[in-house]
Each structure stands twice: as structure tokens, then as C-alpha cells.
Specification:
Mean pLDDT of chain A: 82
Largest sheet of chain B: none
CATH topology of the largest domain in chain A: MetI-like fold
Oligomer: heterodimer
Number of domains of chain A: 3
Strand content of chain A: 5-15%
Order of helices and strands of chain B: HHHHHHHHHHHHHHHH
CATH architecture of chain B: Orthogonal Bundle
Low-confidence stretches of chain B: none
CATH superfamily of the largest domain in chain A: MetI-like
CATH class of chain B: Mainly Alpha
Structural class of chain B: mainly alpha
Number of strands of chain A: 8
CATH architecture of the largest domain in chain A: Orthogonal Bundle
Largest sheet of chain A: 4 strands, antiparallel
Largest interface: A-B, 54 and 56 residues
Order of helices and strands of chain A: HHHHHEEEEHHEEEEHHHHHH
Radius of gyration of chain A: 30 Å
Distance between the termini of chain A: 56 Å
Helix content of chain A: 55-70%
Mean pLDDT of chain B: 83
CATH superfamily of chain B: MetI-like
Strand order of the largest sheet of chain A: 1-2-3-8
Number of helices of chain B: 16
């Protein structure tokens, strides 16, 4: 019978082990892990031998030793008598500082330029396009060197400094600008700002809930703005408007008074903002173009005002497209801040580099930089992923 | 009821004909002075242009000095393009032996010709790969020399534009397969392989390129058995390959994920094994989908080569920087940087335009 012949040809249920995908998978993985482990063991062995031959110490003991090098600018107190560990912390704060400022400013510049490229105004759109095409296609290290050369070499000495705004001077010693003199009122104003922000949040929640229930609208935006800005202003006026500016003035060969940015910091921030701004402009533009025109038409048909149409219909949908690439752009701003080493701004990499040159402990130094950047990168992507989840499409 | 004249029933307002949108004046009105806000924008933009353009033109063209015997004679209100005339050869070819600089010039020409040839989609295929292989061999012979009567030139002396192109291009044939393996590994069924791929990709993408280059230039020699040394250019190249592979892997993974499940099931039903399925069914479709982002990633890699200035290689940016050290020609940093910026910009702009064109072509099937 036919069934007998078929039975005779069907192989036994269990394939031989070398044809069983499960067994093969396990064997392959064991081999894979063994090869990788052997590779790392080989590297480690060589490293140990090489370090011993070159008389280089290993371990992180150097962090407690005196660094004995100066750092040009630092947000926390530091002298050459401090330890390498402290110098690392100085570098880390400098990196975080410039990266955070860069992210905020590049977002502003990029968003404005992205919107400008979509503007119906031909001249504005062309200018924005020229900005994007010019700066996106030039390597960042070159731009940094260019701005640095401009600020250091081309800018005049303090005596002939360029006055770009009233009391803001650009010279080859950096950028000086006036700052308000400290006064106890400022702390109270800060407190009032926080109170105003919290109050604005609750007003916003209450207004939304009421509108959802009764349909009656409440100008939560204006009231919130009033709370956030008005409360500190009231405190300020309550103290009798104690604003005196510390204005920079030329004394001898340099400016005194006011606050100043070094040419290195200025060049790094300028380069990061202009370079990343051109990428963010493209991200924003692509995000807004991704929202189909029908959505805008539908919003207009419902009678929404242009502001509402943008805020309630277009932007929420555009943000879904914008946020993932924006996350990677923020990550690359942070990582690109390490190019500070080219122009001598004392960021983490630059200080680690000096440390490596002095101690010879390259493995530890580079491992520390990598660990720090990994931690920063992972935190930024975590934060942005949380935000992304908040704006992502909730499908039913 | 049918013959009621609607125009009589409903008071329809008399509409004016739509405004003409032809002619210069209408174009101006629509595009520049459409509304009050638009007019303000136009005036602000025009003001910015009026303030910024004339000084640049005066500096770069009107007041510029085009020839001068030395830096002292070249000082004026404008740019000193004589500096570029004096230093262009150094900036382009750096420390390569002066009399032999026709060799790196040929290498640059070969590379540019091969890039241009690769842009033609009709040529894509095995013959193009052979062309690249031949190009690499010829470029290697020209750069190193030592045979065919060419004098031997150490990699230490390679510099300028040829070095930039070599760093950007020669690593690709290594980075690309590694990227494919990592992308496949990240989607593998085997947990050990998957975890190793994820760890590698995320580690490399989480740290700046500088640290990878430091690693390659400082730590890599420590990893090698005592007595084995590899030269600096190769070390930088290894750093770029390891770095680029992680980014390529993520792009390729995007393509892999876009392949419909049915394709894999069909391959399984045909009885293809994993590698056959991957090579014949999966990769051709996945890679074709991600060609535009791959070109963009190549542009990024090209710009990234300028980071080797940090580990002391003399690429195009570093030669431009070093040209400033001549005591006879002091203080022409702006001119030098503008010159190399123009070179970098032309390469990147050309390639980004090409990638946009490819994207449009690839999306044609989806636009109806």
C-alpha cells in the first residue's frame, strides 16, 4: 500500500544531533563565546606583558595623586595642587555645561531655521537653505578651528574690541558682557519662579479638566505665563527693583567687571550650535512636512485658528517624527563636545588626555572617558525615550 | 421645481477674478510682501544680507591680495589669496616628497573618478567592484612605491587630501562586511551572538569617535604581542573601521527589519539554509532599501576623517593648520581654513545632492 511506502521513507522523528537546530545553536554559541573569551584573554595577556615591560602602573590609584597641571576655566574650585580625580570632575562639569548649553541653543537655532526653510517668504526660505547647506557640509573640527582663529587671531585686542551690543565686547581675550550684581532679592525671585511654574501647572490641569467637562475655555496659557513671569517681577519690585549691572570696562590691557567667555568656550559653543543647528533644521523641516496637508485642511475646516491648528493638530503629529532623530542629534552634540580637545577647551577628553600623557595610564584614562560618555548617552536616550513614549501614537 | 434659478434664490456675491500670479511684480507680492508679517520678515532678511554680504565681498574679492612675495607684503584690509597660491601644494599633499607629488595627485584623480563612476546606477555590479579593486591596487602602488621604479614613501609622509580620501574610502570594504555581520548578529536567534552584537554596537555608538581613535592610537599597541607594531595610518584606519561598522550595522538593521516576513517564510519553504537565505533573499533587498542612508553615512565618515588631527596624522585639515606655522606667512588662518572648507564642502555637497536624488528615485514607486 501507498501508506506503507510513505511510512518507510519518513525519517525518524528525532533528527540526528548535528541536524537539530537547538543542538547546533547551543554548540555554535559555546564556540562563539569561547572564541571571544580567548580573544580578550589574548589582549589582556599582551597588555599586562607590555605594561610591565614599559614600567607603567595599572589601577586607579593615580586618581588620588596630585595633578600638578592648571586648568584654564572651571565651574568648580580647582588648583594644580588638587588630585587627578578632581581634575576629571572639572572636565566632566565643563563637558556637561557646554553640551547642555549647546543642546538648548542648537534646538532654538535649528527649529527657527527649519521653520524658516518652510516659510512662504522666498528670501527667508533661501537664506535658511543657504545656512543649512553651508554648515552641514563642512566638518565640525574645521568649523571649530575657524571660529577659534577668528576669535583669537582676527578679533582685535581689548583696546579696540568690537562692541557687538551695548556693553558686550568681543576681543581676542574672549567675549565680555554685563551681568547683574548679586542681591538677596534674586534668590527670592528664583523661589517665586518655581512657585509660579508649579501654580501654572495646576491651573493648566484644572482648566483642561473643566474644559473637558463643561466645554468652557479658560485662558490657561496667559494666566500661566503671568504666574511664571509675574510672581518674580512682583518680588523684584517689592524689593525696590535692586538691579545694578556689573558692566565690563577697559582697565589697562584687559576688561574688568562683567562676565566673560574664553575664546575657546565661545568657539566651541558657536561651532556646536551652528553645526548641529543645521541638522536640527532639517529634522524639524522633515517632521513638519511629514504631517499631511489634509490634517491642516481638516483643522481649518473645523474652524481652528492658525495657532491652535499648529499647536493641537500639526505639532503633536510632527513631534512623533521629530523626536527619534532629535535624540540622536542631542547625543551627537554631547559626543561632539569632545572635539574641544582640538582648540584647548578643558573638557573631559582634554583633561583625560593630559592625565594620560602625564601618568602613561592610557587604558584606565580611556576606559573612564568611555564609561562617562556611555553613562551620559544612556541617560539622554532614556529621557528622550520617556518623552517619546509620552507623545507617541496611542493606537486603539 | 427643477428649473429654479439658484442665482435668483441665493444672493451670490459678485466675486472678483483671482489675482494674477504671473510677472515679476506678482511674484514679489506673493513671495515677499504677502502680508504685514511677511513684509517685516523680508525687510529683516534684506537688512541682514545688506549688512553681511558687502564686507564679505570686500574682504574676499575687492580688497584681496592675489600675489605677494611674502606674508609682510600681503597684509591689507582684505584676504591674502597669495598665501593659498604659495601653500596650496603643501595643503593638498603635505609632507609627501615634493618631486613625487604627481603620485598623490593621480591617486586623488583616481578616487574622484571612481566615486563619480559609482554614482551611475547602470554601472552597479561586479564590474564596478573590480574597478574599485583595480583602483585600490593602483593607488597603493602610487602611494607606497618601491616597485616599477617608484621610490618608496613611508606612510608617515602620506598627508593632505589623498590621506583624507584614503581614510574615508579604503576602510569601507572592511567596515561594510563587519557592519552586515553585526546587523545580522543583532537579529540572531542565538542569545549569545545577539548580546555580543548589541553590546558592541551600543558601546561604540555611545562614545565619541575621539575615544575610539585614542584607543586605536594609544591602547591598540598595548594589545599586540610584544615586538609587533603597526603603523599610525593603519591604526587610525582600524579605528575608523571599528567605529563605522557599528553605525553601518544600525542602518543595515533598518533594512533587515523592513523585509516582510513572507520573504523569509518563502525562503524557508524552498529549503534554503540560513546563509543561503541571507545571501540570496534577505541581503539584496535589505541593502537596496538602505542605499540613501548609507550614502549619508559615508558623507559623515568623510567629515569624520578630519578628527585624525587629534592623533597627529596630517590629513587635509591638519596640513591646512600646519601651513599657518610658516614664519614668512603668519596670520592667514582664515584664508587657509576657507580654502579647505571649500574642498570639504564640494565633496559633501555633491554627495548629499546625489543621495537626495537617489532617495527621490527610490521613492518613485511609492509616489503615484
Amino acid at each position: 500500500m501507498a501508506s506503507e511506502t510513505i511510512d518507510a521513507h519518513v525519517p525518524s522523528r528525532r533528527p540526528p544531533p548535528w541536524r537539530n537546530p537547538r543542538v547546533r545553536g547551543i554548540v555554535l554559541q559555546v564556540l562563539f563565546v569561547a572564541v571571544i573569551a580567548a580573544f580578550f584573554a589574548f589582549l589582556a595577556q599582551n597588555t599586562i606583558v607590555n605594561l610591565r615591560r614599559q614600567n607603567i602602573a595599572s589601577g586607579f590609584g593615580f586618581l588620588d595623586r596630585e595633578a600638578a597641571f592648571g586648568i584654564g576655566e572651571s565651574l568648580i574650585a580647582y588648583t594644580p595642587a588638587d588630585t587627578y580625580g578632581r581634575a576629571f570632575v572639572v572636565g566632566l562639569t565643563n563637558t556637561l555645561y557646554v553640551a547642555a548649553l549647546g543642546i538648548v541653543l542648537a534646538t532654538i537655532v535649528g527649529t527657527l531655521m527649519g521653520l524658516a526653510r518652510l516659510s512662504g517668504n522666498w528670501l527667508v526660505a533661501r537664506l535658511a537653505q543657504i545656512y543649512v547647506e553651508a554648515f552641514r557640509n563642512i566638518p565640525l573640527p574645521l568649523q571649530l578651528l575657524f571660529w577659534w582663529a577668528l576669535l583669537r587671531g582676527v578679533a582685535p585686542g581689548p583696546r579696540e574690541a568690537w562692541q557687538v551690543l551695548p556693553d558686550v565686547f568681543v576681543s581676542n581675550r574672549g567675549i565680555v558682557f554685563p551681568v547683574p550684581r548679586g542681591h538677596p532679592a534674586f534668590q527670592w525671585m528664583g523661589l517665586a519662579f518655581v512657585v509660579g511654574a508649579v501654580a501654572a501647572y495646576f491651573v493648566h490641569r484644572w482648566a483642561r479638566a473643566r474644559q473637558a467637562q463643561t466645554g468652557r475655555q479658560f485662558p490657561a496659557g496667559w494666566v500661566g505665563l503671568g504666574l511664571i513671569l509675574g510672581l518674580p517681577l512682583l518680588v523684584f519690585l517689592g524689593f525696590g527693583a535692586p538691579l545694578t549691572l556689573d558692566v565690563p570696562a577697559l582697565k589697562g590691557f584687559n576688561f574688568s567687571g562683567g562676565a566673560s567667555l574664553s575664546p575657546e568656550f565661545g568657539a566651541l559653543l558657536l561651532g556646536l550650535v551652528i553645526y548641529s543647528g543645521s541638522f536640527i533644521a532639517e529634522i524639524v523641516r522633515a517632521g513638519i512636512l511629514a504631517v499631511s496637508w489634509g490634517q491642516s485642511e481638516a483643522a481649518m475646516a473645523l474652524g481652528l485658528k492658525p495657532g491652535h491648528r499648529m499647536r493641537l493638530v500639526v505639532l503633536p503629529q510632527a513631534l512623533r517624527v521629530i523626536i527619534p532623530p532629535m535624540t540622536s542629534e542631542y547625543l551627537s552634540i554631547t559626543k561632539n563636545s569632545s572635539l574641544a580637545v582640538i582648540i584647548g577647551y578643558p573638557d573631559l577628553v582634554s583633561i583625560a588626555n593630559t592625565t594620560i600623557n602625564q601618568t602613561g595610564q592610557a587604558v584606565e584614562g580611556i576606559a573612564m572617558i568611555m564609561a562617562v560618555y556611555l553613562a551620559i548617552s544612556l541617560s539622554i536616550s532614556l529621557l528622550m525615550n520617556l518623552y517619546n513614549r509620552a507623545v507617541a501614537l496611542v493606537e486603539r | 421645481m427643477a428649473d429654479i434659478d439658484i442665482a435668483q434664490e441665493l444672493p451670490v456675491p459678485v466675486e472678483r477674478p483671482p489675482q494674477s500670479t504671473r510677472g515679476v511684480l506678482d511674484w514679489l507680492r506673493v513671495n515677499l510682501f504677502g502680508s504685514v508679517f511677511n513684509t517685516i520678515l523680508t525687510l529683516v532678511a534684506a537688512y541682514i544680507l545688506a549688512v553681511s554680504i558687502p564686507p564679505v565681498i570686500r574682504w574676499g574679492l575687492v580688497d584681496a591680495i592675489w600675489s605677494a612675495p611674502n606674508g609682510q607684503a600681503c597684509r591689507g584690509a582684505g584676504a591674502c589669496w597669495a598665501f593659498i597660491g604659495e601653500k596650496a601644494r603643501f595643503i593638498l599633499f603635505g609632507t609627501f616628497p615634493y618631486d613625487e607629488q604627481w603620485r598623490p595627485l593621480f591617486v586623488v584623480v583616481i578616487f574622484i573618478a571612481m566615486i563619480v563612476a559609482s554614482c551611475d546606477r547602470r554601472l552597479w555590479g561586479r564590474r564596478l567592484m573590480l574597478l574599485w579593486l583595480a583602483g585600490f591596487v593602483v593607488a597603493g602602488v602610487l602611494m607606497w612605491g618601491g616597485i616599477l621604479g617608484l621610490s618608496y614613501v613611508e606612510t608617515r609622509l602620506w598627508s593632505g587630501l589623498p590621506l583624507t580620501l584614503i581614510l574615508a574610502i579604503v576602510g569601507l570594504p572592511f567596515a561594510f562586511p563587519l557592519g552586515i555581520l553585526l546587523a545580522l548578529g543583532r537579529r540572531s536567534r542565538l542569545p549569545a551572538v545577539r548580546m555580543a552584537s548589541v553590546a558592541y554596537i551600543e558601546l561604540i555608538r555611545g562614545v565619541p569617535l575621539i575615544t575610539v581613535l585614542f584607543m586605536a592610537s594609544v591602547v591598540l599597541p598595548l594589545f599586540l604581542p610584544p615586538g609587533v607594531t603597526i603603523d599610525k595610518v593603519l591604526r587610525a584606519g582600524i579605528g575608523f573601521v571599528l567605529f563605522a561598522a557599528a553605525y553601518l550595522a544600525e542602518i543595515i538593521r533598518g533594512g533587515l527589519q523592513a523585509i516582510p516576513r513572507g520573504q523569509l517564510e518563502a525562503a524557508d519553504a524552498l529549503g534554503l539554509g540560513y546563509w543561503q537565505r541571507t545571501r540570496v533573499i534577505v541581503l539584496p533587498q535589505a541593502l537596496a532599501m538602505v542605499i540613501p542612508p548609507l550614502v549619508n553615512s559615508f558623507i559623515g565618515g568623510f567629515k569624520n576623517t578630519s578628527l585624525v588631527i587629534i592623533i597627529g596624522l596630517f590629513d587635509l585639515l591638519n596640513t591646512a593648520n600646519n601651513a599657518l606655522a610658516d614664519p614668512n606667512w603668519q596670520g592667514f588662518a582664515t584664508e587657509s581654513y576657507v580654502f579647505v572648507a571649500a574642498i570639504y564642502w564640494s565633496f559633501c555637497f555633491f554627495m548629499s545632492r546625489y543621495s537626495q536624488m537617489l532617495e527621490r528615485e527610490f521613492n518613485k514607486s511609492r509616489q503615484r
